[in-house]
């Protein structure tokens, strides 16, 4: 494959200002690294926050955003011969990749929680001057450092079906895996999902296909709730129609014999959703926390809700195994669900600012860039 | 055994007023019920709250308080032949007893969480007119309804050593059993205990004897912290000396390589302690919530702390198995720990108001009534 | 409802001899007991073994077999007002019931494993002279002792759809609940089910609807494997066509990248199946043992298979919560699965011996008696 | 530090023949690798088996045995600056090291079970021609490949106290961590340990310090059982005095109210011990399998024992976190236990064959080489 010396990339130079399309040099590929020709890059809510300077982590400007990448191998570094599952890698293969945990620190080796690694190379959120610049997916090419784990994408799947697996879906798979350690979704459990964005929608799928007897999705707007219904929600509660949290709680209690749901999944991300979910879970139930990434910001919580035999389990991000499982889910269930509906619109790289604006305005299920 | 027609009992007639010593009729013993000659009744923090009308549950006045009873069998109802372990019961045997869950409702049979039963007969906290009046331990005799589970107390143990097992200790055993479902205290884990009351002190014991590498107790006053040290605390942080929560957090971080403890046990009960504990646990750690019984009252919490791969597990009360295990712990470890130090003073029934006042003033580790 | 003084029942008088149809007195209904007009009674493999005297437990002859009962309330004992979920009970209601654990022994109260209770009243397998005679389902009426837990059956479900929930299905629900304690079926896990009888078929359903990516059923005969396919099996291995265990293992390895399945469910019951399953699970996987009830009988096992990070979890029987969940599963998924196919033939009480013979000959998926 | 060009090593040239002391070249230290000056090397039962050609794995001859190494850093490869906990590494530091998992395969990244990695560099058991020859601890120097994880040893600990942490103890810590996932040792549980070798002795310690109410050790010879008593065993059953397994079972049942132990730990390694342990655990209990490494060899097992609600969990080897925890255990509990008693005799490298013979003859608790 012929690789040019430079490529186009959308660069965030200053918070709040439009991204600029720049010509960026493509680095040499060191051993075990990979150079990717990006085929699609999902736009995440985090990208909207990043654009506004509202991401907690200390990102270095200028930066190329985009951490939901999907692309084909342009160059394979020496020694990089297989993906995480053991499948051989060749130029032209389409792959997904995770953040690159260091694998050598307390968090990776002792706590065995790589998603908590402080030394990771994080794509689309460059946090160190040593990290190559071309490590965001809003670009024609992207550089994967040697530590990056990757998995091949089955050829029969379209980019639209798959791109969500590179961020929201793999996170949800990881979260349900953690929930499984403490009982999971039991046979015929009632499940409330707070949030109807990509995290909420994939959570709905995993509840539906994981044994739930009743799935209730609380979110907005209508288009997302319609997709939630297609993906298995038995009931939806529209935030726009039921703006009062106590009324939403009342509806959930009515649907759950007055006791609350067996399982609540917080996938909304709004700070107040954490406490709202605690009002909706039954004593002795389980609560899966996926959405809250607000650092030290606080919200009022009634600890007695947790005291009553609750189990609350949090999940941050995902490792490569969850990408792998998400891809298999898509492959095995595509006869039943239209996964491609996750991408409501695609934009060329030159219209990246439009894509961000449309996401910010809530007009998309998910926008995607096709560089 | 000769049983009189009436006995003395301390009766709470009106919130905030001194308890009155009254002569109360002793009921006939129906099948499977048991009549107890009370030997000792611990005074719990809940009794202080009850006296002030500050218990959430709808207690009926007048009421005989006391749910930490310990006594000998005066009368055995027909058909009541064995304790929960299968040991034969005879008049004169010294026993402990749990609240009497109904065993027939959604909470008992479907959720399998008997401590959440809404139909329980709760000793010392009478909540139904159908419940016999003589069901509190601040009395010479106490009536145990047929559903009540009981266990025999080994004769070599003194009342002072054992009385804590009828409330605080059995709750802590239950809580650690729940913690065990999600990983427990791992080999050499660091553990922070918030609170140095009976719940905190027994939590210190179970951490120490359960594999902790380092145990840090945060509480007051000095006398309780000294007992915490005797019962295994490697470090204590005195609330009276370090009144600033951010400074307490700093001390814990200093003791835990800047990361926070592997396990935090909230045994303080103060509303703000819940959020304080979240600041002290490391990402990916475990948080055991025992103390928060404040109903709908809220406190500020940073949900991102939970999001970072935390597991939080709550525990309400205990079932008879935990009384049994607490008794065995005392029996097996009494060569190492002076369990009797839990009772700092005993009072005859006629001085029950003094006992309550002394507990309220924080002058006791635990006061106990000897009726 | 009018209740006669006597009713017909099929009685096993001597092992190996045909059951006799006898006229049996109907007892008075004591408080909390229930008299049932039996509508359908499934014939279980255990009934075939019982008939041959090959059940380990010390059953008393003569006995009325049948522990898969389904019927309507003819008489409600005083005080028996609600089912286990809290729904009101009235004569005419159709219900399912569990064995009656004592709720008072070491196994019920301390180990909290009621299915291990040694004092249970076990329907269709009478083991004590004190147990009423009319406690088997191969009869027009059946007497449920006071301790028996019951749940109402939704009226829209047919007897054929439901009867399996009174034995095989509730056991499978219980088994998967136990599996959930140790990780469950993870997202897209591969699952091998050994056995295509009722236990195997319901296990296939729960794997399919519980998140499996690939389900492989090993069993016979063809009719059962066809139902397994309808109920979600991606692959079936017919014991009649592949009689060599090493060849079956090879097929499973071929389907699982040479590593073995993530989860194996032993639902065959044949003694050798236990070891065969261990050959089919990957190192670090999970193994759910449901079928082995052969007492002290041994089979060769390679313990190194377990040593390699395996988790093996056994399950005996079920409690009332699992009946409840099984019923909800049937109600919620009947648009997708033809649950009624579980009953391949029904027989009147007078033809009970034919039903047993047909089960023994392997001609049925499940036979059922309609008394 | 001055490093010579060659060093002495004990080399196994042919199975069954004495090891030869040879002069072996010391390789250059590549980036991230470490050269060790070995201070002590434990002799493991596996070394005895290796000497006899009875290890399942395909070891390449000639080989330098020894996988229980303990030594000081002679040379640090470029880029190797910290240990697994984040402590800085310097020449002269004393460290322990784990096998070197590849970190890139299905087992490391997808199954997340690195001890199952098929590409590991395994010290003392060289399995690939590409692995440097000087990778066994029966030598003056040892070469650690770049992937090897290491932890520093606190200076206050003696080699005799620590050497067991490099094999048996870290394995036991890993095993109890796995047991913790499924309930662990509950408060006051009864625990049977099968085996009184190093694995059994460390298992006794972790049971004692992990909350057991009663610990029973089954093993031999007398010297090891005496150490078991010092390390917490309440009862010992001497195989030499009670050679009949059914009598040993009877003794365990007598000590556990006729029900069997709550937890059984199989640490004997003898094939028949697996089934013997199943006879000693109570229904609904937990069974931890550490000792069985006999590949496809089978032993008779009664699967009904597992069916009765048992949880069996296996453990193979350990990762670096378990070395770290084992070291902390030793550091924190050395005032209570004489850990140095694990090493019953030390031998210079030239007497390595004597050490092997003494281990084989059962005259040692553990022999150690001081090269």
Keywords:
homotetramer; globular; 6-stranded parallel sheet; alpha/beta; 11 helices; 371 residues
Structural commentary:
4 copies of one chain form a homotetramer. Chain A is of the alpha/beta class. The first copy, chain A, has helices at 45-51, 106-110, 159-162, 168-181, 198-208, 222-230, 245-255, 273-280, 303-307, 320-333, 352-360; strands spanning 6-11, 20-25, 34-42, 69-76, 94-97, 141-144, 150-152, 190-194, 214-219, 235-238, 261-266, 281-289, 299-301, 311-314, 345-348, 367-370. In chain A, strands 3, 4, 5, 6, 7, 15 and 16 form a 7-stranded mixed beta sheet that branches. A 6-stranded parallel beta sheet of chain A has the order 10-9-8-11-12-14, with helices on both faces. In chain A, helix 6 links the parallel strand 9 (214-219) and strand 10. The radius of gyration of chain A is 20 Å and the shape is globular. The mean pLDDT of chain A is 96. Chains in contact: A-B, A-C, A-D, B-C, B-D, C-D. The interface between A and B is large, with 45 and 45 residues.
């Amino acid at each position: 494959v012929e690789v040019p010396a430079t490529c186009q990339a959308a660069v965030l130079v200053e918070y709040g200002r439009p991204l600029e399309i720049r010509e960026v040099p493509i680095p040499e590929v060191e051993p075990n690294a990979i150079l990717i020709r990006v085929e699609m890059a999902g736009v995440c809510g985090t990208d909207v926050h990043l654009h506004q300077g509202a991401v907690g982590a200390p990102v270095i400007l200028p930066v190329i955003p985009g951490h939901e990448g999907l692309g084909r191998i342009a160059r394979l570094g020496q020694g990089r011969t297989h993906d995480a599952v053991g499948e051989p890698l060749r130029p032209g293969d389409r792959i997904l990749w995770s953040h690159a945990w260091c694998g050598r620190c307390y968090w990776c080796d002792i706590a065995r929680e790589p998603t908590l690694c402080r030394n990771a190379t994080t794509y689309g959120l460059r946090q160190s001057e040593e990290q190559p610049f071309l490590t965001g997916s809003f670009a024609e090419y992207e550089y994967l450092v040697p530590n990056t784990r990757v998995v091949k994408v089955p050829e029969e799947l379209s980019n639209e079906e798959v791109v969500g697996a590179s961020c929201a879906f793999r996170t949800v798979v990881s979260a349900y895996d953690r929930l499984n350690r403490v009982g999971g979704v039991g046979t015929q459990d009632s499940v409330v999902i707070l949030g109807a964005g990509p995290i909420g929608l994939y959570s709905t799928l995993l509840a539906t296909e994981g044994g739930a007897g009743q799935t209730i999705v609380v979110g907005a707007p209508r288009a997302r709730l319609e997709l939630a219904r297609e993906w298995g929600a038995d009931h939806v509660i529209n935030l726009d129609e039921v703006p009062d949290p106590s009324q939403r709680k009342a509806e959930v209690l009515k649907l759950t014999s007055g006791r609350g749901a067996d399982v609540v999944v917080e996938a909304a991300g709004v700070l107040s959703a954490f406490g709202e979910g605690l009002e909706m879970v039954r004593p002795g139930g389980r609560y899966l926390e996926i959405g809250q990434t607000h650092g030290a910001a606080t919200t009022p919580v009634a600890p007695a809700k947790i005291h009553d035999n609750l189990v609350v389990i949090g999940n941050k991000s995902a490792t490569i195994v969850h990408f792998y499982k998400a891809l298999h889910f898509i492959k095995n269930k595509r006869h039943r669900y239209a996964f491609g509906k996750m991408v409501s619109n695609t934009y060329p790289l030159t219209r990246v600012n439009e894509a961000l604006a449309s996401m910010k305005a809530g007009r998309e299920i998910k926008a995607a860039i096709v560089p």
